[in-house]
Amino acid sequence: MEVENRYVAVRHHVEGSPSVDDFEVKAETVRWTPESGEVLVRNMYVSIDPYQLNRMKRQSASHHSVDVIVPGERIASYGVGEVVASACEEYKEGDVVAGMLAWEEHSVFRPETSMLMSKVDASSGFPLSYQLGALGTSGMTAYGGFYEVCKPKVGETVFVSAASGSVGSLVGQFAKLAGCRVVGCAGTQAKVDLLKDKLGFDDAFNYREEPDLKAALKRHFPDGIDIYFENVGGEMLEAALANMNTYGRVAVCGVIAEYTDPGRRAVPDLLEVIYKRITLRGFFAWDFITKFHEFTAIIGGWIEEGKVHVIEDVSDGLESVPSAFVALYRGQNVGKKLVKLA
Ligand SMILES: NC(=O)c1ccc[n+]([C@@H]2O[C@H](COP(=O)([O-])OP(=O)(O)OC[C@H]3O[C@@H](n4cnc5c(N)ncnc54)[C@H](OP(=O)(O)O)[C@@H]3O)[C@@H](O)[C@H]2O)c1
């Protein structure tokens, strides 16, 4: 079988803020045979994630275990798709799968080397797109980061940055369910309204309108912050640390402000960390992979009960992948950023 495939590639390594001109759409013919041992998938949704930018940098500028994306080649990403042809027992034509696919219209995967791939129960009643957000890696990140890393207690105060985004919007709602007082920040008034009016945050503010972040956090947390869920880095982390309570916990999930500008790297006051016995812990979503089904079953239950709202921001068509990606760094997305392909 042969299918015409189009995929998105970077033209060159990307340093600083990405622009749509850094990307190109390429075409190829994909050949699949029953002897290949592979599964051919027609991609329905692909995920747009901030960490991808770190993979687009030159090796020397990228970080640790990040796989560098080779200019001109396809870009692996989480996705949901329908099996079109399968050379293995486990997957049948028509099955819906979620896992590591790519920013392309069709993908092939080999089950024995695709650890992250799983079949989706399409009759669950949830939109398939949720597999990439609340019921996928964003959910696992938010749940694992908040419950396992932050270990919240009833009555504690929680600050969430990038709070209207995919991970942040879930963390804030989980914090309310855990009996905490939660304040989020975001980059527009519309996002601030969403946090307070729809997602149940106790308070929220537009960080772009705050000339002094430390003072803003002091105002919002007169009794200090017990838990900071860090998505942004830079000055935001410095301001949060200055307002943490003794034995406070900081879950370092991401530092998006630093992805585009290494000059903005946070300079945390470590004396603050020592004297207040603050725990700063970085983590990866995949640290919780063995609990993935446990976490997503709980989140799915909350969504069904109306206790958690899912916010998605969906663009259409492969050509919109570059602008969807660039939007993340301009704060133009609200909730989980996805591209619908079919
Ligand atoms: N550790 C892990 O395994 C893991 C897994 C998933 C995600 N993450 C991290 O979690 C964070 C959120 O990811 P997400 O997928 O949920 O993305 P997201 O929050 O849905 O989208 C990114 C948001 O970040 C904010 N932002 C962008 N540039 C910024 C800047 N310079 N300063 C402050 N805010 C900025 C924007 O919202 P505003 O309107 O608020 O500016 C933007 O909408 C990222 O740092 C990501 O790398 C980590």
TrEMBL record:
Residues 16-339 form the Enoyl reductase (ER) domain. The keyword Signal does not apply. Keywords: Oxidoreductase. SUPFAM superfamilies: GroES-like, NAD(P)-binding Rossmann-fold domains. GO terms for molecular function: oxidoreductase activity, acting on the CH-CH group of donors, NAD or NADP as acceptor. It comes from the Eukaryota. Coiled coil: none annotated. Pfam families: ADH_N_2 (PF16884), ADH_zinc_N (PF00107). Homodimer. This is Putative NADP-dependent oxidoreductase P2. It comes from Triticum urartu.
